[in-house]
Design brief:
By secondary structure, this protein is mostly helical. The chain is built from nine helices and four strands. The strands form two sheets. The protein has a two-stranded antiparallel sheet.
């Protein structure tokens, strides 16, 4: 039987962590590793937002499966080439499997090509900046071209994700959502979405002395605002437009941060 997570946000102490009881805006560095409570609890931040109509979900799911099967067939050479490059550059494993929160608060493993050194989760926080020393040589190329995201087609195939939707976050960030922001958990998370297009070069924006605080207080709330706007007007044509927009912005320059 699935249960919701009720434990407080798991934190890894960093130099800038505030004393206990301080406001959430300065809570320290959030770890990307699996919190201990995830071994038994399987849900977090469940949304009260009603799910989309069954017909809409069926059409979207059918489209996801069809495109994913075609995509996996076409990208098989990419899987092979990237796997060999990672093995030569930094060894095993080829894939990174991180915890994320999906529809209805269900926790799942997201698949990516590994772009960082082995055990990188224990060497820093969940936030990755453009100059992060944990990123490997091959990893920098994969992250720049977004090829590291290709294995998420497997997540789409098994039903954890959709091609288009809100990007999934780590459970420790989802615990920071307010009631309105949790509405994004009413749908399957996506490989791409409106926030993915807007923040194409997010790592380049995460500069300064405290990228963790910048993400929590500025970037994450703005991404969630964009995703909520998407939920209000989502349909097949909106999703198709976002897929095309994603292809179009791949070589784009970093966007400016909008403080709200």
């Amino acid at each position: 039987m699935e249960r919701r997570l009720t434990q407080p946000v798991s934190l890894v102490r960093g130099r800038n962590q505030a004393p206990a009881g301080h406001v959430p805006g300065n809570v320290g560095v959030i770890s990307s590793a699996s919190p201990p409570e995830l071994r038994e609890e399987r849900k977090v931040g469940v949304s009260s937002e009603p799910a989309p109509p069954l017909l809409d979900r069926s059409i979207k799911r059918s489209f996801d499966v069809l495109v994913t099967i075609i995509g996996l067939a076409l990208t098989l050479p990419v899987f092979l080439a990237v796997s060999i490059a990672i093995l030569v550059d930094s060894g095993w494993p080829v894939f990174y499997r991180g915890w994320r929160v999906g529809r209805a608060g269900r926790i799942f493993r997201i698949y990516k090509f590994r772009t960082m050194v082995v055990a990188a989760d224990g060497l820093g926080g969940a936030i990755t900046t453009a100059g992060d020393a944990r990123i490997t040589r091959v990893g920098r190329f994969l992250r720049r071209t977004k090829l590291d995201e290709v294995p998420q087609l497997l997540n789409v195939l098994v039903g954890d994700m959709s091609l288009v939707g809100p990007r999934p976050e780590h459970p420790n960030y989802v615990r920071l959502y307010d009631d309105e922001q949790r509405r994004v958990l009413a749908v399957r998370p996506g490989i791409t979405g409106v926030a993915s297009v807007r923040y194409r070069n997010e790592e380049a924006l995460l500069g300064g002395d405290d990228p963790e605080a910048l993400y929590r207080t500025v970037i994450m709330p703005d991404k969630l605002r964009l995703e909520l706007d998407y939920l209000r007007s989502r349909d097949f044509w909106t999703d198709l437009g976002l897929v095309l927009a994603t292809i179009r912005v791949l070589p784009a320059e970093p966007v400016a941060i909008v403080r709200r």
